[in-house]
Each structure stands twice: as structure tokens, then as C-alpha cells.
Amino acid sequence: MSSTIRQVGHGAAMAPWLTIFSGAITACIYIAYGPAPKAFVWDQNLYMHEPWRLFTAHFVHCDDAHIWWNLPPFLLQGWLLERYGARAWFLGVGAGMAGVDIFLA
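Above: the chain sequence. Below: its structure as C-alpha cells.
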């Protein structure tokens, strides 16, 4: 009786697109505008007239050290979470950010 060896794999590794996209947005905003431009920083008194601040406040950083202490760990953790099937958890974090925005509004 001949035995067949079947190679079992997980398929092609998926790129962590949510993490890459979020990290790229954060880096681009920082490169384009530098440290925390006032137009993006959250100010509770301005949300009625400038509602984009609810979204942009999550992506601004106040200086070089701040972005370098936040972005690499975010990319590493996001990559690990997405790689091991935690996209739902990752999206949950996004929903949590939206919840904070709703609470602040």
C-alpha cells in the first residue's frame, strides 16, 4: 500500500492591509504637516464647526519622539493581530475609536 504525503499549509500569507493603510496614513500626515497642526488637533469647542477633527485627532503626533514611540509598536502589534486572524479585533479597535469620537461629540 503506498502512502501519499500531502503537504498542508496555511496558503499564501496575507499582507496586513489594515495595519499598513493605517500606518501609512499616520506617517503621511506627519510628514506632510509635521507635528500636530492646530487644524487637526482635537478641541472640544471647535467640533461643531470643524468635524474632521474627530477623525484626524487619532493620527496626529506632537513631535518626532511621539510618532517614533507610537508608530512602530502599532505596526508590529497590528501585523501580529492581522496575521493570526484577529481582523475582527482590529476592526473592533477602530469601532472603539469611533465610539470615543461619538462620546466627545
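The first helix runs from residue 17 to 33.
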